[in-house]
Every structure is written in C-alpha cells, then in structure tokens.
Amino acid sequence: MKKIHLRRFSEEATLRQKRDAILTRLCENSPRTFTWFNQGSYEMGTGVKPINGDYDIDVGVIFDLGNPIEQPQTEKRWVRDAVKNHTKSVLWKEPCITVQYQSANEPVYHVDLAVYGKDTSGQLYLARGREFSADPRWELCDPRRLTATIGNRFIGEDAAQFRRVVQYLKRWKDEHFPAEGNAAPVGTGLTILAHNAFNPVRTGYPVTYDDLTAMSDLVRIIASSFRGKWSPAGTMYRITAMVPVEPRDDVFARMTDQQSTEFKARVDKLKGYLDEAARTRSSTPLRWAFGTDFPE
Questions:
Q1: CATH class as words, domain 9-141
Q2: How many angstroms from the chain centroid is the CA of residue 7?
Q3: Where exactly are the structural domains of the chain?
Q4: Which mean pLDDT values do the consecutive 10-residue runs of the chain (296 residues) have?
C-alpha cells in the first residue's frame, strides 16, 4: 500500500518547504513571538495521500497567554493577518487558520495552523470559534501528549503495522464518505478507535506481519462497539471515541444519529469485504474497500 502512504513530515521536502515558508511569514508579521510544533497524522506517521490531491498539513502555533487572558480571536487574528496575503486563499475556520495552496485554480496543499495559548503552568488551550462567533472559547487540550500517547502504544514492527492499519482505515474513509461536513468519521476518531482496539498479528518464523487479519480483527471490534438506541424512525446506532488526553471529549459527537447509523452500515460492509478477501485470497474485495490504488 505504498501508493496511499504519506511519509512523515520531515521526509517530505515539498511539504516542509510549504510549512517553513508560512512560519517565516508568520515570524515576520506576528506582533508576538511564538513557538510551533508538528501535529496530527503527519507527526504520527499515519497520513495518507489524499484522493483529491489536496494535502492536509497540521502545525500548532503557541503564544504565551497574557494576564488577564486574551480572547481567542486575538491570537487567531494575529495569525490570519500575518499570513493572509501569503496565498490567494487564507480561511478562518472554527478550529484553525487554513492557508490554501492552488495550482491552475485547483487545491494542491493546505496548511492548517492550530492556534494555542499557553498559561503560566505550561498548559495549552486551543483557540476555537469563527472570526465573528458569539461564543469563542479556549479549549483545554494537550496535542503533544496525544501524539505521544498514540505513538507509544506500540513499538518496533508492531507500531509499523498499527500505522499501516490506521492508514487503511483512512483510505477506506476517503473512498466511501463525502469529503465535507460531519457525515464522515474524522481521522482522529478512527485513530483513537485503532489505538483502543488494535492488536498486532504476527505469523511464522522468521516473523511476518498479517495485515489482513489484523485489519479484520480491528474492524470486527469496531463494528461491535456501536450501540443501538430507539427512535421513531427505527433503531439508530452510535459509537464513541474519547480523546485519551484533554479535552477528553467524544470526537464523533458532532455526527447525527443518522450519520452514525450510516457509519455503522459502512463498517459492516467493510467487514464483509475483508472476510471475502480472507475467504477467497483475492485482492478484488480489498480494491472495493480501499480503491484502485490497492494492488491487484
């Protein structure tokens, strides 16, 4: 599955250049000094090459909070204003500032700048809310600890198999869910589900890793984790994935009952594809699940 794998950020020269150019612009124009760190799937090594070609890169930008604590729009506005002319499209989103790169008017990269405030104890807070939101807020969080918690769950080749399985899940999501809105399970949620339930599968000597069985076992656990709830329209299903560090919330909470029920139906279908691949030893069901980038 090398065709879907996106290597770690430090190994991708083009992505590194985009990140560095934006940080240079921010450094030159920000009214305050800041520190930064890589976050998200690129830092964890679980990124996948996007089907639509629009690469998503996540960077955390940290400002020391003043006393009294400034409004979250203040720091986000510093970031937006500092980079707003760097490309034709700089968007203020609820959780971040997005710098979009385009080629021939088509999106090719976007860098999400998550803006954090740090208090005197070193605790981080994410600036949430749109520019003119009536309820902007600082959300207590610990993104670097989240990366470490997930990254340290397994070691060595076990960890490599874990990353591959997460990548399979993400490519499956990209193939079978819409790109916009809350209908698709967020990548962080899939990663947390895998973190909670994945077990490495090794066979033989010398040891080889059986990704198909590992993936099948994980998907079976995920499918059984949905819980039914009654509604006038019929039984609906929900699943939770609690962030293991602050803010310790459910990353699937924004899905409606109908979206969550459709999520379950697609998981059940994925389970069927994997079972069929194991039964027939054929790659065709895997191409149905993960797209034509999966080898024949």
A1: alpha beta
A2: 15
A3: 9-141, 154-290
A4: 50 77 95 94 84 82 80 93 92 95 79 94 94 92 95 95 96 90 91 97 93 97 96 93 95 96 98 97 94 80
